[in-house]
Write a structure and sequence with these properties.
The protein has 138 residues and is mostly helical. It has one domain: 60s Ribosomal Protein L30, Chain: A (2-Layer Sandwich). It is built from four helices and four strands, in the order E-E-E-E-H-H-H-H. A two-stranded antiparallel sheet has the order 1-4. Strands 2-3 form a two-stranded antiparallel ribbon. The structure holds zinc ion.
Length: 138
């Protein structure tokens, strides 16, 4: 059995007037992540780990922020493309282990059920891009 391990890391600044999207899930918050795409730092880190495991570069190579084509892009769609790159080389992702480090605590009087959010993120990543398999990229 051949196994390769990748390590991904991403960081985005929290700013007003942006959605907070992690793992494809829009999390209600007064701040969101700044970025050229949807700034989904969790999905970006996962893509970098997948690409790094096969020495295929990083997401900036495939989806450069200088290209207006990726403005506001749904990172789960980008993840689908990375998954296709991996599969085209005969590999597949067997395990994802991620840590989220947040700049600002979540202070809502009705706190999020983080177990539910984590499950939703996982389902979104695993199933989200499968559902979008037939979507095309422009
Ligand atoms: Zn990013």
């Amino acid at each position: 059995m051949n196994i390769r391990i990748g390590n991904g890391y991403d960081i985005h600044r929290l700013v007003p007037d942006r959605p907070l999207i992690l793992g494809g899930v829009n999390i209600p918050h007064d701040l969101g992540l700044l970025g050229h795409s949807d700034a989904d730092a969790l999905t970006h880190a996962i893509m970098d780990a997948m690409l790094g495991a096969l020495s295929l570069g990083d997401i900036g190579h495939y989806f450069p922020p200088s290209d207006p084509k990726w403005a506001g892009a749904d990172s789960l769609l980008l993840l689908q493309q990375v998954d296709q790159l991996i599969k085209a080389r005969g590999w597949h992702t067997g395990n994802i282990d991620s840590v989220i480090v947040a700049e600002k605590p979540y202070n809502d009087p009705n706190p999020l059920d983080f177990k539910k959010v984590t499950e939703e993120v996982f389902i979104s990543i695993i199933n989200g891009y499968r559902k979008r398999k037939n979507r095309t990229f422009s």
